Amino acid sequence: MKILEIHNFIRPYIDGGASISVEKMTRSLSENKEVEVVLVTTYDKFKTSIEKYKNLKIYKIYPLNLYFGFPPKKKINKFFKILWWIINLWNPFVFFQIRKILKIEKPTIVHVHALYSLSFSVISAVKSLKIPVIYTDHAYFGLCINSGFSRPLKGVCLKQCTLCKLWSSWNKIFLRRNVSFIFLSKFAHSLYERALKLKLPMRVLHNSSFFSKEEIENIYKIKKEKLKNKDKLIFLFIGFLEFQKGIVTAIEAFKRSNLKKSELWIIGKGRFKNYVEHNVKLDRRIKYFGYIENEKIKEIALDSHVLLFPSEFYEGSPTTIQEAYAYGLPIIATDLGSITEHIKVGETGFLFKYKNINELSKLMEWFENNMDEIDKFSENCFKVALSNCKEEYIRKYLELIKDCLNTV
User: Fold this and answer.
1) Looking at residue 207, what DSSP letter applies?
2) Residue 36 and residue 44: Cα distance in Å, rounded?
3) Measured between alpha carbons, how far is 40 from 240 in angstroms, rounded to an integer?
4) Residue 13 to residues 57, 263, 268, 361, 406: CA-CA distances in angstroms?
5) CB 194, CB 159: distance < 8 Å
6) CA-CA distance, 131 to 34, in Å (whole number)?
7) Which of 89, 176, 323, 360 could form a disulfide bond with 253, CB atoms 3.0-4.6 angstroms apart?
8) pLDDT tens digits for 220-253?
9) Nearest Cα to 309, choosing from 326, 321, 294?
10) Rounded to whole angstroms, how far apart are CA atoms 325 and 219?
């Protein structure tokens, strides 16, 4: 079986957790001998590039438009921005490039992920060759032009605005045409059922940490030793330093709380970097590590005790949560959208009301006052991580792919 995956951006064009998770997923999938894997993505050069990493073949194409879509352009002439979005409704240049690749590769099935900068002409190209297609929306882009049902500095949109209604009405033309779905959450499933007015199969698969079973078991041994010495409690925030990720809520809750032997460690980059650095100067208990990856994150996560996840928009399936579990970190998270599906309250963490700084403060205080409970929470987190390790995730994923093929 040959699976062709399509996603708008991978490294070095990281626009969020979706890019990281799709790249990790395709690499993990390519390790499986049952399948052949091809990934199609974009980059900022005009000539198509073909790269090979072990068993993974990667096509990089330029989605011919007025400008390359990464990062999303802030300061640009409004006329050009509107024209860019008009082309992005159905990009004919992308249509022909994708169709050409499909004719060469002849995949058994195509799995389409994020389409910002590619357009829904991708689905048209697949359907034109009568190849089965699956769609997974990592950020509700098919329903919300901003993704995540949020606006900068305003928070969650509780209902679609007029522009998003028009946008989603256009996208429904393609998504209602014999397209299979794999959802990242039950929450996403319910949103799409309502939007498309269709009864959709409940094919749900949360993202994985993409750590192997062996890696998680090794981390568990290290973590267990580190938990024996808890002279202070470390709360960890990892993510973009943006309003919708809740960085302001996290810092204000920490400052407002009555914590006496705790610290807040922050990893990330974004527009609120100056705000973070300002608070580091005001409060010695707050530490900022900047934007870091891989082994350094592992060191910091192993020395931490609780992850703060105060997100203020509709998340897809946060890899940060899955990675936290793989490091044995219980989580305090917002009770918003799909996030609630990842937290077993009282076992792997707690939920607090959206934007409720006082409630977040109280939960942080609870962990400080009950530090002995963290060992039990950590055990539960490792169990969840093992149940969704890389090997288990790929097994479940292939089952869903076969189910989609059987119902075409």
Assistant:
1) -
2) 26
3) 26
4) 18, 32, 16, 35, 35
5) no
6) 19
7) 360
8) 999 999 999 888 999 999 999 998 999 999 999 9
9) 321
10) 11
